[in-house]
Amino acid sequence: MKALSDTWFAEGYIDFELKKYALLAYLQEINRYFNENKLYPQLGDVVFHYNNLLAFKENKQFLQQHFPKRLTAVNIEKLQLLYEQMIADDELMEELENIIQYSLQKMNSTIREGTEIYEFVEEQLNITPVGLIPLDVQEGYMLLSDGRASDTLVYQYRLTIFERHDERYRGIHTEYISTYTRNLAHTGNSIKTDLIRHRRHLPNPAVYTVETDLVFPLTETLLPIAKRCLVKYITVNPA
Questions:
Q1: How far apart are CA 66 and CA 239, in angstroms?
Q2: pTM metric for this prediction
Q3: Which domain of life is it from (predicted)?
Q4: The predicted structure's pLDDT at residue 64
Q5: Rounded Cα distance, 127 and 142, in Å
Q6: Backbone φ and ψ of 51, nearest 5°
Q7: Which residues of the chain have pLDDT under 50?
Q8: Cα–Cα dist 64/60, whole Å
Q9: Residue 183 dihedral angles phi and psi, to the nearest 5°
Q10: Interatomic CA distance for residues 198 and 193, integer angstroms
Q11: Distance CA 156, CA 10 (A)
Q12: Which residues, 6+ apart, have CB-to-CB distance to 227 below 8 Å?
């Protein structure tokens, strides 16, 4: 995938046409992935760059507060220096503002396209608990299947909670366990029984099926959206 550096708009010669072509080449490739219903990591990358530009436009301090994990101290210092140069140089400020405004509009359009695909996939997913759900649903199994074949993919999941800027978020970590052929012998309940028998560290796990009749790219779309939907489902439907 063609990539933009984290501080692409601030690097090298600050020229609207130069940055415009770099952006359009990047977005053209992102849209090529979207046309194949492949969302990740492309959608997250565009959102990052969009927020990064918005942050720089609104307040240089916002960068340091909101993007500490991806932007390095060197990049933050570079952006802060550029921000100061903008204030002191009317011509540079105008050129950067044109670059940022144009880029925000183009990225926003691409993000909307990706979001529409995400929402469509989300609407096609059906989540169902398998058997009785224990009180502790922080760890368990997700049984994932779509319309491409007769396989059920089993992932062990573990919910996590992390804090960021005075807010608490729920995340999820998954690990692929095995694949079962879907047939009368391998129902959701039978897979759950087999998992309990062979993986005794979880004697009473929460198990959920996540299914769709349609076909989506597994790594780039189906799995990441299924994980997010499962987090949402567990949050709304606690044991």
A1: 34
A2: 0.82
A3: Bacteria
A4: 46
A5: 9
A6: -65, -35
A7: 61-64, 66-69, 166
A8: 8
A9: -160, -175
A10: 9
A11: 42
A12: 142, 157, 172, 174
Instruction: For residue 74, give both structure tokens.
Output: 């060197």
Ramachandran assignment for 54, one of left (phi > 0), alpha (psi -120 to 50 degrees), beta (any other): alpha
- Alpha helices, DSSP H only, in the chain? 16-35, 42-58, 60-66, 73-88, 90-124, 188-198, 223-236
Helix 42-58 with 90-124: angle, nearest 10 deg: 140
Tokens at residue 167, please?
């807010």
What are the Cα distances from residue 79, in Å, to 26, 45, 148, 162, 235? Answer: 21, 19, 46, 27, 38
Q: In the structure encoding, which two tokens stand for residue 132, read together? A: 């009785």
Structure confidence at residue 76 (pLDDT): 63
- Two tokens at 172? 């999820």
Determine the pLDDT at residue 150: 80
Q: Tokens standing for 176?
A: 């692929």
Q: What token pair was written down for 201?
A: 């560290």
d(CA 96, CA 151): 51
196-236: pLDDT as tens digits: 999 989 999 999 999 999 999 999 999 999 999 999 999 88
The label of the residue with tokens 């919910």 reads: 159
Amino acid at 13: Y
162 touches 168 (CB < 8 A):
yes
Lookup result for tokens 């608490």: 168
